[in-house]
Structures are given as C-alpha cells and as structure tokens.
Design brief:
The chain is an alpha+beta fold and 334 residues long. Strands 5-4-17-14-7-8 form a six-stranded antiparallel beta sheet. Helix 3 links the parallel strand 2 and strand 3. Helices cover 28% and strands 29% of the residues.
Amino acid sequence: MRRRSSCGSGRNPWAVRRLHARNSRWGPTHFRSDQSRGDAGRPCPADRQPPRPQRRRSAAAARAALVEAGLTVAEFEAPAGMSCTEAILAGTAGGDVDRVVVGGGDGTLNGAIPGLLQVGLPLGILPLGTANDLARSLGIPLDLEAAAQVIATEAARPIDLGEVNGHRYFNVASIGFSAELAKEMKAEAKRRWGKLGYAIAAFGLLRRARPFTATLIHDGQVKRIRTIQVSVGNGKHHGGGMTVAEDARPDDGVFDVYSLEVEHWWRLVALLPWLRSGTQGRWKDVRAFRTTALELRTRRPRAVNTDGELTTHTPAVFRLHPAALRVFAPPPAA
C-alpha cells in the first residue's frame, strides 16, 4: 500500500506522519496572503497555535483514526515558518504518497489549495475546524473516525474551485457583511466559542450594517445595486450554517450568486431562516442567479472574504475552474 501524506509545522510535535494534516485546533492556521506573494507563499503564523498538549491530543486522535481505517502513515515535520504549499511539496517529494489528508477547518483547507494543485494528488478531509462548511457540502461525516473511513474507502470525486483576483477557494467568497464579520471574528474567539462566537460577533455587527453601492458585471449585463452583502458560491455551505442555494453543489460547474439588497438591518434577521436553508432567492429584495464568471466593482476598495479569510479586495474578478481537484467523499445524492 502506498503511503499517505500529512504535514505539521516545526512547532508541532505531532506531525501526523506524512499525511499533510493542518488543524485549526492543533496546528498553524488562518494563513494570510499578501498581494505580492500570492497564496503559494502564505506563511503559517505560530502565534495562533493552541497549547501544545491540546495539539498532541488532537494529533494522536487523528493519526489513530487514519491507521484504524487502514492507511499507512509516515512522519513529516515541517520547519517553523514553512508555507502550506512548501510543506505539501516537501512531504510528497519521495514519490510514495498517493493522497494528501488535511485536518482542520475551512481556512486551513483553503491554505492547502496551491500545494494540492501542484502535486496533483487527491485530498482527504478530517473536519476539525469550527464550521467545516466544505465537509458538510460534500457529505463528509464530522466524526473523526467516520471521516477517516471515507478517506480510506470512498472514491475521489472531482470538485470545482472558485477564483477571485488569483485567490482560489472551495466554498464562498463574500463582500460586505460577511467580510466585516471575518475582520471582527478573531482566531482566539473562534477557538474559545466556536459557532457561538460567530453568532455573538454577527449580532454586534448587525445593527451597524449599512448598504453600499456595487456594480455587477456578468453574462453581458451590467447592474448597479445597493447591497449589504454579495456572495459568490462555489460550494453549498458557508459561515457556519448559511447556505448559498438549496441545490448548490461544489461540482456543478457554476457559481451560485446572491446579493442581499435590503435597506434595514432588521430585514436580515427576518431573512435568517431562508439564508440557512438556501431559499433566500425567493425574497424580492434578494438577487440570486447562476454564472461562471463575474466582476464586482465598488466605489472604494472593500475586503473579500474567501473561505473565512480576508484575502483580497475589490475590484473583484471571479472565475470558475471546473473539476480542478479530487476529494475523497461519499457519492453525491441523486
């Protein structure tokens, strides 16, 4: 059996043996990219790591689940400061690895994209983050042992990637309320409060939310809008409980886009059940459509949130990459 690869940082004592695993609970996460370096050079900041004993416990549980599922795991320990892409390239350099497993949340998975594209190996996901939106979109169990069984037994499915200004993403890119929420939702709060932290931060931000003017350019159309948020979805779920569209899939070859064109913050509260179910497009003050390419412009630069991280700003040019990566996941529901 060929070996599976995993990575840790030089400050991580566990390094789930050559399975390229990064975990927001036990390894460096929340990779930031600056415009000059691009995603491939995103560092792994050490100041966001949890206590060392917690990392050891989570790493041991992850490794045990993978071994129990029948995977051969060989150790790789990345030096401190090595980017996720560099770690994946180094850990797979021996040529005896047939899959890359990443343990963590959506921001961690996003940071692995450039390295995964370079090595061309399928991805296994251990959903150990706060929201685990990609895992839920793909039907991957949130239980560690069950997720390891998926990696060991299911076929690798091709899925699409979104791209905005050169930054690729799995789930959703948003401008407006969601991006402002990402600014306020600090890493420590995410670790301490989990999904409750999202709710607390969102409530504090909600009453300050105001519409902004944006221009949408797609499919030969130019639309000037007033909106609180524009979301461009490649996957189905985002924001720890929100749904882009009820029938969205990360392998359907299209973006699902929605714009919340409400005038008052309390309308967002009324919209919440529809946002959770992905039926918000039925509201008259929500614009929803599908496309494969989009440009969004604003009067002043606004941050763009991709998979929970602020990675770029407007003007934002979106492109879709069909079947760009393979992921071990259950077959899509009929």
